[in-house]
Hints:
It holds the Pfam family Aldedh. It comes from Nocardioides daeguensis. The chain is α/β, with parallel strands linked by helices. The chain has one domain (40-286): Aldehyde Dehydrogenase, Chain A, domain 1. It is built from ten helices and eleven strands. Helix 8 (213-222) runs parallel beside helix 9 (238-248). The protein starts with 8 loop residues before the first strand and ends with a strand.
Amino acid sequence: MARIDVRKTYKLYIGGAFPRSESGYSYEVTDNKGKFVANASLASRKDVRDAVVAARKAFGPWSSRTAYNRGQILYRIAEVMEDRRPQFEEAVRQSEGGSAALARGQVDAAVDRLVWYAGWADKLAQVIGNANPVAGPFFNHTAPEPTGVVGVLAPQESSLLGLVSVVAPVIVTGNTAVVVSSYARPLPAVTFSEVLATSDVPGGVVNILTGDAAALGPWLAAHMDVNAIDLCGVAGSPELATSLEVAAADNLKRVRRAPAAEPDWALDPGLSPMTAFVEQKTVWHPIGI
């Protein structure tokens, strides 16, 4: 007797829970050959607002944790991803095509990227902070602080490594994130959200929405309680990117601008993905007091 597969309908990830989209809509997700794989929730404007509320609520407690503890949690995400390697490899292979070895390499790189950022958690302040010489009897210190709630338009092509490469630097520096996944390749992102839910990441620190970046991006860019936005997900769409930059200017958001084309995510990312979303706070203190 032939068995009928149980097809999954992937939900959103908001505030540590997995709600359906407020719109009630979903869309078909196909593999690289056009074969149906699953349904994904189609996020709406209301879902964006709900995700921002969850991210704002989580920001205070998350940014107050020690950098060392945030590094531990990122390392735990890498551990759980390693345990779920077969599922991630299958999701990457379905989404991006290519061989099993290529998918395995993408998962390797994504796990390694998380470990790399985990290692930077308690070292970044030592590299970009300063003890400043001043003309007076004062100590003058500059140290990085998180920006706040960051909207992230995830890469459209690199469904796992690209996703991890834009989310990890945001949260390791103490920010919280509202992420719009790749529209055509959301499977690694929703699998990643299931990992986050079981990796000691407090609810609301990362919120993942499946949907169209061109539809959801304007609501994130214009939201007055979002402090920064990463436009990597609209690479190659200069008119859309410009409109989002204009919307972001209303409350002086930090903007990580969209590249002309999606970069090679396997390259060393450097420190700029982390420094893009931190503020530099300078403190003066009299010597001897």
